[in-house]
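Local shape tokens:
==================
===
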Amino acid sequence: MIPENLLETYGAECLQYGENELIFSEKRRADFYFQIKAGEVKMFNLSENGKEFLQGMFFTGESFGEPPLFGDFKYPATAITLGSSKIYRLPKAKLMELLKSNFNLHLKVTETLAKRLKYKSMIMKEISVHPPEHRILTLVDFLKKQYGDETMYKVELTRQQIADLTGLRVETVIRAFKSLESEGEIEIRNHKIFR
């Protein structure tokens, strides 16, 4: 999102993380802007009984955890790496300087936050109103629009990750995929989902 050379100019450090390494915890004060140079990150909450609710997944080139920087509140979720990752970390004060000096980047960050808000609204509606097949197709179509192209899109998420993102159980996701395949909405090739 923000060019790497500009991040470095403003003092960002590039940190190396291993798999399943903690980046920040829920309810911790937000002091840094994070942007992935290479790797994957997930943000999630845990219920009292230990069930994980996946808030989002972020990939190379994407930022994450920005709302608390602008709203001056603590992180609403925990972030960990999904594999070996390199992540830029820029102090909040330096981020604000960068954005004040680069209005077009400020607009790009605002646009990204608006799209994430739209996604959250869409997912909340899906979880509260629609059957599993509809929830899954909405998620897959969102991912295809965000990361794919006009051709057949290969879903890179695991069935567990899809379950976590849609508020479903893995068994329900598997049944829904079989139903969607029989209806011609998706293709399953070598255990991978295509749409």
Q: What stands out?
A: DSSP finds seven helices and ten strands in the chain. Residues 130-194 form a domain with the Arc Repressor Mutant, subunit A fold (CATH 1.10.10.10). The CA atoms of residues 46 and 115 lie 24 Å apart.
